[in-house]
Design the sequence.
């Protein structure tokens, strides 16, 4: 099976934000879709290891910031390359507003935001799928949404050339490079928390 075929599925890129008594947090995801029109519901799929996931399980609320093609790589580094368990991602990040549900949403390089409340949670192994009813939404710009393919072609820097003789695998999600004899089957990217199946040999 060629796992790279899954990269051909059209996906957008989003900052998923949530909050609890400990503060605000967010992470990068690429799986949001509308599932019903009356009432308006969306589905969001997120890795169980993400701190944002813990917040959503606790509060049953979240926001989606839809990233557009003006996004730069530092935005993905801020929300995708560290964990809210150890870093306050909003400490030095000022491009946000607080939505009516008291959760932050991103204003930089964002063409819309959506507020939602969870109605169902589905355990699918490494991830949860949250089904949520939309409670508020606003269009912020006319710039096209950034697709997963656009991110790889235009936003993510090319990996730096390395003359090491070790085998190298690159994470197709965030660009992290693993060096070693073999990539372990149970390897998890330390930056974006995606599994070994999302790595390709360089």
Sequence:
């Amino acid at each position: 099976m060629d796992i790279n075929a899954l990269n051909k599925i059209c996906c957008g890129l989003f900052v998923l934000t949530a909050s609890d008594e400990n503060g605000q947090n967010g992470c990068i995801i690429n799986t949001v879709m509308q599932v019903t029109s009356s009432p308006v519901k969306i589905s969001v799929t997120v890795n169980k290891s993400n701190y944002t996931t813990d917040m959503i399980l606790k509060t049953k609320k979240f926001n989606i910031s839809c990233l557009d093609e003006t996004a730069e790589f530092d935005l993905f580094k801020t929300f995708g390359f560290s964990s809210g368990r150890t870093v306050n991602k909003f400490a030095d990040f000022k491009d946000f507003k607080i939505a009516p549900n008291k959760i932050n949403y991103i204003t930089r390089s964002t063409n819309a935001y959506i507020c939602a409340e969870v109605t169902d949670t589905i355990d699918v192994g490494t991830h949860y799928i949250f089904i949520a009813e939309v409670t508020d939404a606003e269009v912020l710009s006319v710039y096209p949404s950034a697709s997963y393919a656009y991110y790889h072609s235009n936003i993510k820097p090319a990996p730096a050339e390395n003359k090491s003789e070790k085998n190298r695998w690159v994470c197709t999600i965030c660009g992290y490079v693993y060096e070693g004899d073999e990539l372990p089957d149970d390897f998890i990217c330390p930056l974006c928390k995606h599994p070994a199946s999302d790595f390709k040999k360089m």
About this structure: Residues 51-59 form the longest helix (9 residues).
